[in-house]
Amino acid sequence: MKKVLRRVLLLWVGLLLAVFGFSQTKPVTGRVTDDKGNPVPNASVLVKGSTQGTSTDENGNFTLEVPASATTLTVSSLNFTEQEVRITGSILSVTLMPKSGQMDEVVVVGYGTQKVTKISGAIATVKEKEIEKLRPVRAEDAIQGRASGVTVISPGTPGAKPTVLIRGIPSYTGTDPVVIVDGSIQTLDDLNSIPPADIESINVLKDAATTSIYGVKGGNGVILVTTKSGRRNQKTEFAYNGNYGIQEVFSKIGVLNATEYGAIVNEGSVASGGDLIFPDLSVLGKGTDWQDQIFKRAPIQSHALTARGGSEKLTYFLSGSFLNQDGIVGGGDKSFFRRINATSNITYNLSSKLKFTANTSFVNIRGSGVPENSINGVISNALNFDPTTPIFNTNPNVYGRYATSPNILSEIFNPLTQLADTYNKSNTNKLYGKLELTYSPIKNLNLTSRYGYTYTNVVGKNFFPLAFYGAGHINSTLNADGTPRPGAHNSVSEYKNTYYNYTWENFASYNWQLNDVHNFDAVVGMSVAKITGNGLDASRQDVPFNSWEFADISAATGQAVNNGLGAGSFQYERRNLSYFGRLNYDYDNKYLVSFTARRDGSYAFGPDNKFANFYAGSLGWVVSNEAFFNSNLINHLKIRGSYGVTGNENVSPQFQRISNVVYSYGLGQNAGYTFGENATSIGATIASFRNDALGWEKQVQQNYGFDIAILNNKLSLSADYYQKNISGLLFNPTLSLYLGTAALPTANIGTTRTNGIDLNLNYNETIGKNFKINTYVNFTTAKNEVTETNNGLIAGGNYGIPGQQVTRFEKGFTPGYFFGYKTNGLFQNQAEVDAHSAQPGAQPGDIRFMDMNKDGQINADDRTQIGDPFPDFTMGWGLNLEYKGFDFTTFVYASVGNDIYRAYERNLAMTNKFRGVLGRWTGEGSTNDARYPRYSFVDGNNNTRASDRYVEDGSFIKIKDLQLGYTINSNWMKRIKVNRIRVYAQIKNALTFTKYSGYDPEISGGIFDTGIDRGVYPQARTWSAGIDVKF
Amino acid sequence: MKNRLYIAVGLALMAATPSCSKFIDYSPREDYQITADDYFKTADDYQKMLVGVYSPLQWLWAVPVIGDVASDNSVSGGENATDVLGLQQMDDYTTIPVNSYLTEIWRTCYEGINRANYLEENKNKLEFAAKDQVYAQAYFLRAYYYFELVRFFGDVPLFTERRLGVGDSKSLGRTPKAEVYAQIETDLRTAIATLPTTVNEPGRATKYAAQALLGKVLLYQGSTNPAKFDEAATVLEEVINGPFSLLPNFGNIFLASGENGPESVFEIQYSNNNPFYDWSNPGRGQGNFAVQHHGVRNLTGGSPYAQGWSVNLPTQELANAFDTDDTRKNVTILDIEAYSAANPQFNITYLVAPYKNTGLYNHKYHPRKGETSGQIELNYLNNNRVIRFADVLLMAAEANNRKASPNTAKAQDYLNRVRQRAFGDNDHNITATGAALTEAIWNERRLELAMEGDRFFDLVRTGRAAQEITGFVTGKHEVFPIPQEEVDVSELPQNPGY
Questions:
Q1: Class (C level, CATH) for A25-96
Q2: Do B34 and A660 touch (CB under 8 A)?
Q3: What number is the ipTM of this complex?
Q4: What predicted TM-score, i.e. pTM, was given to this entire model?
Q5: Which of A305, B311, B345, B374 has the most crowded CB, counting CB atoms within 10 A?
């Protein structure tokens, strides 16, 4: 490897030397206007076939030094058709024609750009304008519903990562698409660090023809983020965006008030042979609504200041931004996301042939979170905690600010005490960007070497104070008088993790033309990538004064052997070596052919499987460019098809690890034993299986589509049908239990098939002079099916205490489907119980579970599919209206057919209940709704087992964005040198239409956890106002 | 110049191919990971692997709980009907194949067997001084794990040559119980031939432990194969002639100070040593998770007892089975109300067991203050007294009385030694013979070993379960269901009736 580095280094020196030659130049000046004679600012003016050029100023004027040999300039601008102009002696006058639709746009693809018209693969694009308007906290929010073929399920937690599925669920090992920022590889997790003000466009590569150049990384699709860069010969343009808003929870879950709770608890106790627990219901009143206590109105604000411009040789984009989002659960003290960014994207033309680009971004993220989406999360506690408990503790002799419950003595906490005792913070510093050198020795040949990097440093801390949840509460570590219980300690833990990833890519691209009709565009290259991580963590007991202020290892005093002071570390590295190439050909812009090949090597696989090849090809036919095609209605028509292979390497190397620890947390594969009073003996055992046969997961994808534009390009439609077949699926199998408890290896198991349709419909219209309409609809379907599993099935989706599993990955079903009992009403009387298949413990009023296999018994074999957490289809509808200075934007997102499993109910005797219990079965004929069986403390029928009584339809329509803006345009602005001011008011998540009874039907997670509501952090409704200024 | 550059670029790319392949090679040592290739090079490696075979014993904490809950000795208790659900179902005789306790026992035993087999697999890699001792212990432990399996589940997959790998998944069927028993006997006899009579480290398998276990294994087969009683009598006699004695004070056996005492034949060792265990895998640590289950809920006051989860509550019927002057009653059963009344100085308060309350608690394994650390629920130090000398005496008494030519005198003698300790006199000696003596021995086993997890298995092996346990169905409940997951994945036939 070293040798290669040296060689390539030498090569670079050679390149540098080669370009310091002189060549003769001549000056060219001109003016660019539109068809109405208005100047076109910021138009790009390039010497044809080179990267040498400039852009026009505000009045459309430009001056450019061009080589003496140059004959033609290429002039282009957003929304205008590119035009070629011969260089003549006089001042050039260029008239650009408005672009017909979006057909001449250029999009970013892997290792290059491509004209939209020449693309025969499947790409979805979201532009700067949309992103700028939406002002998302994370970039993925901008593609939800706006990019067809992509399903985004957003979480409510500030800054948290959403579920992003590009064309369904291809793999079990993770669904995250690869994220490429300006050509350097990052992950979906990194998208929390890119401020929207920096983003020029987001392109989503969907089919094999476009993703296979990323080979083994491309299996889950590719998100290409392009950040803004400067413009040549342009005065600095400053822009400021500021936004301030208030967030709030948009719904509440119906739980019992204190009186209702008392009555139901009494009934449950009596029904199970106990006494009345609340003999006098009249004293209970409404009690405390804990949801009101934990949800806060929380501010969110963002500010961004950018500057872009450039000189003849240097272009720059600079930005600084700040975002602060407080959480609606617990407020900003306990839950927040704060981001500070600074970006400097600089391109310098070292010579006419050599260009150097340095994109550098620094981001600092601070955050704090609360326990959520689990049975002991804050929301779950708020829903299940005793409503008869007052908010505050009024007894001066008892420790604590908040009251305790005499009824709830384990596992469930007063949510306010829990919030107050939650202390954590993290601080992330990240530096990412790229260094790129492009050498153009001859016309149309670019040699590029690019080093993309991400350096991340995360420092964090957790403090676990001694806590008092009540005298009888098993988790109390303090006595009622505030003294610690014997053996109880508080503790503080700290961690410092560092991650460094780089991708070093060297590639050459060349395009040429033969006989004016044969157009070729080729790229070939290689890439070396490395991902590393390491961390140190430590913890110590006995923080002074049981206080967050002193929560630091340096202040803690714990001395207990081993336990008082703990430390750990980790390190890992992933390495890839790849070669790739692509050839695009078109005949006279009519017939499009593309072929891509990639050879990937991964450290993760055994010697026999180190390398794999991935190929893809696509064909396209631009029917509307044919001479015979002569339609006044249809302006553009293209038919496309692609076929290819991508892969997945989301797996660690497999080897037979030996554990020689007394206890391995999490895995339970300890090998210690304590003989008598001796110190514990450290043993050894095999802790993981090996799988020598491990190979690559391969995904074959076909894509068929067409693009059509009609009515003078006002209405355009892109439609794609795709099918993916994945074989050698990488995942942990369920193996025979008699293999023991060693960690199961990843194996190539099974196949899945996904197919679906992506549609994008866009309509632009200008009515009269001033009224502009743009509306679009995106439609995405993905039907997933597991077609084969060699080694059984996988169960997941643990919830509750005792834990139950509700999701499965199994042949013949959609991945991650809900698995459990089907209900069929309630037993109304003993005769019905007797008549039904044997169901142990059943009484009248209990749920009748269905005997699916008709064997006369209700048992585990009767469990079946009871739901699917993934939507049948999702839709996004956007509408932009402009009238004079006013603009109105709305965006509606719909998800249909996704089920939700309600798993936040704790179902203990003394926990609070959901309002549905008021309609419970109280006697024959009272109700036959399986969701509301009789209520008793003793649940002999196990009515709470995983069944469809907890499955709800989570389909929803959300008005995600509602925005009204006004752009001020008057003369006084010119005097203060302001180009543009826009003020606006915005409501995010304005309205949600759903039948789901919980807070928010969007529940993100992995394949096994999506759609399981364990008390998930809901998205907030945000009311905000802001201002955009350009000067 | 330019052409040369292109050539250089091309060459550089090509040159990258062979040397760069090393870039993606991987060695686990990069991540400081020890692999199987690094082991079995020194005697110490073998010793460490042997310790690893002992570990899963500790994970079998639920076995003694089930042994009583599934019998007429105790009820499941817990917080409510769905707390400790798997135990509730075993108590109520509604057990279904999805049962976390049974799954854990199944997996744990097979983990132990695989660990023992891994030693077997690597037997010929190195010769060293104490090698036969290492293997004798491994065989003892393998027998122990198979015995648990066979008495819980009946016919089970049997393999002894090597540790199973991924490719062995789904490859095994259920081996008839008799063959499993034969393998257990073989392993124990091999162990007996080599194991020492005394060990430096308490808890290590001894010759006597292996003999006592063999005696028990033979006794379990006696009902269907009476010849086994003769064998049992012979092998147990050797234990009786060993160094063991009955502790004069019955209660002291179950104190921390009574662990590994003169009456102890084999104990599963637990400790509250570091490192402590957390909730990520409760029950798989060095502490005895069963103990926390047995405690009185929300217990406060100055008594030596700590609070727990009111699980495995002795029945009144068990309490009534003791004679009033039997010293074992109060050692076995904690009547918390009576105790509280008798000890007002402790100011005891507690929560009445919220479900299936009997007012009685498992006193032998009740949590006691100061005997746990770290995550307090998980790290109780109480050893599981698997085989006590009293058990050996009663087994020997039974074997002697039930063998083809009974030795009544011996049977009576062994039985009465146990009773004399219990009552502190000879007035309660049994003089019955024949079937009545057998009944007396069985009854004595119940009283002597109550709340130690023996009752259910005793009732099953002696064919009395249906008459003593409500809900027990003959032909079904003699064994527990095989975990549903194993049935699903390995396609093993389920036990009848489940």
A1: mainly beta
A2: yes
A3: 0.91
A4: 0.79
A5: B311
